[in-house]
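Hi support team,

I'm opening this ticket because the web form for multi-chain structure prediction keeps timing out on my end. I have pasted the exact lines I submitted so you can reproduce it. The total is 710 residues across two entries, so I didn't expect it to be a heavy job. Is there a limit I'm missing, or should I split the entries? Thanks in advance, R.K.
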Amino acid sequence: MAYAYLFKYIIIGDTGVGKSCLLLQFTDKRFQPVHDLTIGVEFGARMITIEGKQIKLQIWDTAGQESFRSITRSYYRGAAGALLVYDITRRDTFNHLTTWLEDARQHSNSNMVIMLIGNKSDLESRREVKKEEGEAFAQEHGLIFMETSAKTASNVEEAFINTAKEIYQKIQEGVFDINNEANGIKIGPQHAATNATLAGNQGGQQAGGGCC
Amino acid sequence: MSRKENKSLKEDTYAPSESDQKAEDAEPADTDGVEAEPAPMTRKRPESKPSEPSVAQEALMQKVQGPSSTEESQTRWGYWGNWGKSLLSTASATVATVGHGISNVIEKTETSLGIPSPSELSSEAKDVTEECQISANDSKRDAENPLPSITGAFGMFSTISAAVQNTGKTVISGSLDALEFIGKKTMDVIAEGDPGFKKTKGLMNRNSTLSQILREAKEKEEQRTATEVSMATEKRAHYGLLFDEFQGLAHLEALEMLSRESESKVKSVIGTLSGAELDALKAELEQLKEAFSLAEFYDDEEEEKEEYEDFTREIRGLFSQLYVSTKPDKLIQARNSACELTKNHTDQTAKEERQKEEDLQVGLGDAELEEKISVEDVHTSAIRSLAELTACSIEVFHKTAALVLHGQEQEVLAVDRAKALSQMTIVLCRELSSLSKNFATRLTAAGVEEKADVLNPLITGVFLEASNSASYIQDAFQLLLPVLQISHIQAQTELTQQ
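Hello R.K., no limit was hit. The queue was backed up. Here is the completed structure from your submission:
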């Protein structure tokens, strides 16, 4: 129950790339081949451990459909991490990445950690996007990259946890102002007192980055 | 879930204020101050600062500075001032109405338990103080720690507040818990009679949103449970944690986001209009707002015996009037399983009673049996059910908001949707009230052999959370107003463009 931090994540990307399946695999460890279309946003939460610290991930799984785009944008705010997902068997979902990225950068905070995910890696025979292409795109835009399969659970755990590690790293470096909830990070009840003093120090070190 | 997508509809139909919204986005989140404040142990309803003008008022302020004549702007300002005010008061007024039903039950329950009735307490603030003194003395006496009678009201209050802080953690005497609840109701009654005070309640306050208050309460609770792992039952039955577990908090937060965004869009549209157009829109928005006033709420305690099917049919019927491509299945399921729970407990208790008699006949002790169904178990499932039903209700409101904004065929007027939603709110609150009564009955049945100071706080806790649940649902309902307002404006715009 008790956690040191809470990170808010968003999952974005074209419809049908497997966003909801990734979430289900991560939170419930199961795969559901047929999924209802997501209306607006759905939620999932799970506790993970990083460097001995309990971290709660609160995940906002957004609707991928174009017609929902203006609504889902409203949900971006206050996310610490984003999983930007495409389908390796559908070239168009890869081609739309730039738009998604622009959207995400525009409607959320600049420090947000973005993980690029090429999903459905189990469907090697139908692959349309090479792994190297994904890697190149990620490198060009400063993202972390991974290929996953929500079906076989390959790399799913890693995708969510590596994003959290990156965020955690940024907190340690003082990039994130954890006292500002707009960054999608909240200090949990565990060691709240010690973290509060830590946060205070960080706030002091940050030049002009303070809140309030 | 069967869904028909209407891709043909332009998604950006309601984005005339994209830049305006960006400016909003750029604002630093004003939550830090709130976060720093010590969160209250008991949840409070959000309070708005009376001095803070509503968004609509601000928009009008800008208008007023325009070239229109002073008199005209005076009346206009007054009109809109009223608009904002009554909007603020809507929530609290309805809460009092809904709370009424519950406090009636409380009255019945508590009198049978020998606790002063809320009506005795609510007549005047002074009376409350006196009663407090008496009740607190009573409870103190129970705790074998007699309080000197010289102690004034001030000392009394601190005693009470200390007790309130410990509610649930320590088993304090039941009358103190009841007092907390009655005090809350009393505040509602006082608020009802005082239009000025009304303004201090409501949900339009941007500095402390409903989800924030709930989250703080939850965090506070987590903090507490982190240090006191031993209180396992307490943790199990904590409303805030359960509400979060059912994703109620997330849906509420998401709904708030949509509401806030819609509100700023409405504001910017108002900012672009003038003269007759503005007056017309004002009248239309006013009409929408009236549909949100829940005026038709009636407390039909007698009718409540009508079962299941009724709620299901009613909710489905109302939902179909919304014309949104989702179904309230989850909500109905949550409600039905809650009903099942209240029933199971009766059966089990009855069975237990029978068995106990048998056992006594064959000379077996009944200590073992008593453990089978404890009052704590009933209490836990009651709180859990309330949290789940509330979370599902808020999810339904959130989904409705998303789909309304999604801009499906506007075959239904925003005002009709508002009416259906307000009726739905009433049905949900009525359901919560009847659910809490049923759970209280089960608790009383399960706890016949418990001491009053064990049973009473549990019963009061169920009523308290049911009352809070009703408040959350009504506040969430109010968040839909800006959503329907902007949806109405869009529909109008489309109409004129055709």
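A quick check on our side: The first helix of chain B runs from residue 18 to 26. Let us know if the file doesn't open in your viewer.
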